[in-house]
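Model it.
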Amino acid sequence: MRQTEFSIRPKAQTGVDSKTPPRHETTKSTDFNRLPDEANVSVKDASFLTGLGVSTIWSKSKSGHFPQPKRFGSRTFWKMGDIRHWLNTAGC
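Modeled.
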């Protein structure tokens, strides 16, 4: 019986031209500055923005030391404004 390998992250896929970045590539930090406060940010992006590990974000969120996530079906996001506020106050 052959084992099937599963991956949580999608494989890098580019568009028709080589200028299109892979779909799972993290957005540059300068692009985050242009996001509105209402923008939804994934846990990986929140980790990138704060410099915290993904598991640390979950643990701080559960203990009340990081903004609470919003759930949309099976997906979880944080509001960009909440992360900005956390970074500018108690977060650093």
